[in-house]
């Protein structure tokens, strides 16, 4: 028995016939558009740790050079 979700998915895809996978996937159609997308969920669980400032006019932006 697999111990993590990733291991369980690998085991499922390695041991399940393609026809069964497609049939199982078809059963999930009714849940499309319900709840968060995987990307939104992961962003809420693991917020970005690096804050990149792309606005050069922001007071927090500094290139390290002074121009007079």
Plain-language structure description:
- This protein is an all-alpha fold and 68 residues long.
- It is 41% helix and 0% strand.
- The chain has helices at 5-15, 18-26, 38-45.
- The protein is elongated and about 60 Å long.
- The termini are far apart.
- The mean pLDDT is 80.
Observed structural traits:
single chain; 68 residues; mainly alpha; 0% strand; elongated
Low-confidence stretches: none
The amount of beta strand, in percent, is under 5%
Describe the sheet with the most strands: none
On the 0 to 100 scale, the average pLDDT is 80
What structural class do you assign from the helix and strand content?
Answer: mainly alpha
Summarize this structure briefly.
The chain has 68 residues and is an all-alpha fold.
Please outline the helices and strands:
Blueprint lengths: L4 H11 L2 H9 L11 H8 L23
């Amino acid at each position: 028995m697999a111990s993590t979700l990733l291991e369980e998915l690998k085991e499922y895809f390695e041991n399940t016939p393609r026809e069964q996978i497609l049939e199982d996937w078809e059963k999930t159609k009714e849940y499309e558009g319900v709840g968060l997308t995987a990307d939104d969920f992961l962003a809420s669980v693991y917020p970005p740790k690096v804050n990149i400032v792309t606005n050069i006019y922001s007071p927090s932006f500094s290139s390290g050079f002074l121009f007079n």
